[in-house]
User: What shape does this take?
Amino acid sequence: MKNIVLTGFMGTGKTKVGKILSDMLSYRLIDSDSIIEKEQKMSITDIFKEYGEPAFRDIEAHIIKRLSEMENVVISTGGGVVLRESNIENLRKNGVIVCLTASAEAILKRIEKNTDRPLLQVEDPLNRINELLKSREQFYRNADIIINTEGKSPQEIAEEIIEKVRGRLK
Assistant: This one.
């Protein structure tokens, strides 16, 4: 069976929805950022600070390649995983890619108390979110399925994903 791969900007619900999906499908949930932190023995924020974003993206690509070879898993990815075409190619080989979306305002409201978002440690986080969303939009559109998460519970989003991927998982 194919995997379900959750992509999308930070704060769109990938982790919460992933947990529900994995329970509903009896799939294992794998969070690519958690794997990176565990294997690197440091937080994503610290990797960014110490080595920079390009080094982080290299580590991420290596992990994504490995995760994409698994079966029957829900893979929750970091928000920037879509920036490398090779990541999407690897994930698509054995997965259905679902992009979760939300407005910049909704994203900020969901994550404003979270201090471990290295790309948002700026004076005007809403402006930064808008900039990042705009620069990543073309990459997010490469998903097989796109779901707006605003006004929906994680359970409703998971049910919508299952409905839309039915028949694509074989």
